[in-house]
């Protein structure tokens, strides 16, 4: 299967999916499509669903919210659990509305579940979640079968622990569950699927500049407001920059060191995202994120007949 490098045609009635690594310009492209042709922008990012970390998760600001309708941003309490299954249930109603969805985010697992289907895995009991929280990453990995390890990012503790929890709670591996999936809500051939390909050096520079921008916009004040509520086990606490700024406020990191650690973590995350999308989005349209005018990489039709 070869990567589609052609210019995608955007039809007003057809859902649009936009994936790509952090800081690659996904939200701006989604906003351009919504303003040019209409549509509802729907979040597919696993961390932008939570309240409490608006700046650090790069949720749309008030200006962007005024330009187009948005959904599934900041609608989940910061201390709640939230899985891919939760997101699929939340996104499903937007697939049947008159206003077509423009689904945008950097969480590859959400897009995979949306377009390929998701296994109906029972919820994890709290005591198993707590036991997993107490184990180091190597111990979690050691319990997993080879097939499951081959399907997940083994450096991503959240994904590894999720696979461990599934095995402990159900007695079946995550791979076995995935092999018995429900039909997809939105197959790739029923939507226009776009992946932004971001060159490493270009993206690394943007990541650094964006984190500095976040600091200028009040990310440290945001962390200070969250400090009394901080719990590293919360899923929302995985927001890149959150542990680092909290550590600074707790006196264990200087601000320059916290900034550097957050930028490194963001670059590492972007590398994992690029690897995921290269492997799994071969049947998507691919656009160079460093194009000076991303909007010029699209063609717009006024109707399905155009």
Descriptive notes:
- There is one protein chain.
- The chain is built from 13 helices and eight strands.
- The chain has helices at 26-37, 62-67, 84-91, 108-116, 126-133, 137-142, 146-149, 157-170, 174-178, 200-217, 219-226, 242-249, 255-280; strands spanning 9-10, 16-19, 40-43, 70-71, 101-105, 192-197, 285-288, 299-300.
- The longest helix is centred in the C-terminal third of the chain and has 26 residues, at 255-280.
- The relative contact order is 0.20.
- The model has no long low-confidence stretch (mean pLDDT 93).
Keywords, please?
single chain; 306 residues; alpha/beta; six-stranded parallel beta sheet; globular
Describe the secondary structure blueprint for this structure.
Elements: E1 9-10, E2 16-19, H1 26-37, E3 40-43, H2 62-67, E4 70-71, H3 84-91, E5 101-105, H4 108-116, H5 126-133, H6 137-142, H7 146-149, H8 157-170, H9 174-178, E6 192-197, H10 200-217, H11 219-226, H12 242-249, H13 255-280, E7 285-288, E8 299-300
Parallel strand pairs: 1-8, 2-5, 2-6, 3-4, 3-5, 6-7
Helix pairs in contact: 3-4, 5-8, 10-13, 11-12, 12-13
Main sheet: strand order: 4-3-5-2-6-7
Helix content: 40-55%
- Count every beta strand, where a strand is a DSSP E run of 2 or more residues: 8
Shape: globular
Strand content: 5-15%
Distance N to C terminus: 28 Å
Count of discrete alpha- or pi-helical segments spanning 4 or more residues? 13
SSE class: alpha/beta
What is the element string, with H for helices and E for strands?
A: EEHEHEHEHHHHHHEHHHHEE
The biggest sheet, with number of strands, parallel, antiparallel or mixed sense and barrel status, is: 6 strands, parallel
């Amino acid at each position: 299967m070869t990567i589609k490098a052609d210019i995608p045609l955007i039809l007003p009635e057809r859902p649009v999916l936009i994936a790509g690594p952090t800081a690659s310009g996904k939200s701006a492209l989604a906003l351009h499509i919504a303003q040019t042709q209409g549509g509802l922008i729907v979040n597919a990012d696993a961390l932008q669903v939570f309240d409490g970390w608006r700046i650090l998760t790069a949720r749309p600001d008030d200006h962007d919210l005024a330009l187009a309708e948005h959904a599934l941003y900041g609608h989940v309490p910061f201390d709640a659990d939230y899985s891919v299954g939760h997101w699929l249930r939340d996104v499903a109603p937007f697939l049947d509305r008159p206003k077509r969805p423009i689904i945008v985010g950097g969480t590859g697992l959400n897009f995979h579940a949306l377009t390929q289907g998701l296994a109906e895995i029972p919820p994890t009991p709290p005591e198993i979640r707590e036991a997993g929280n107490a184990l180091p990453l190597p111990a979690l990995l050691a319990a997993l079968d080879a097939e499951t390890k081959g399907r997940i990012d083994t450096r991503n503790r959240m994904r590894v622990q999720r696979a461990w929890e599934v095995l402990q709670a159900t007695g079946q591996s995550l791979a076995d569950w995935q092999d018995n999936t429900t039909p997809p809500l939105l197959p790739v051939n029923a939507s226009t699927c776009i992946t932004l390909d971001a060159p490493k050096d270009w993206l690394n520079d943007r990541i650094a500049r964006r984190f500095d921008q976040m600091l200028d916009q009040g990310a440290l004040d945001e962390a200070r407001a969250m400090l009394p509520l901080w719990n590293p086990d919360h899923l929302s606490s995985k927001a890149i920059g959150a542990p680092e700024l909290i550590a600074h406020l707790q006196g264990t990191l200087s601000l320059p060191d916290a900034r550097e650690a957050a930028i490194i973590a963001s670059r590492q995350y972007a590398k994992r995202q690029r690897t995921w999308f290269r492997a799994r989005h071969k049947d998507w349209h691919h656009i160079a994120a460093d194009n000076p005018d991303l909007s010029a990489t699209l063609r717009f039709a006024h109707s399905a007949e155009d």
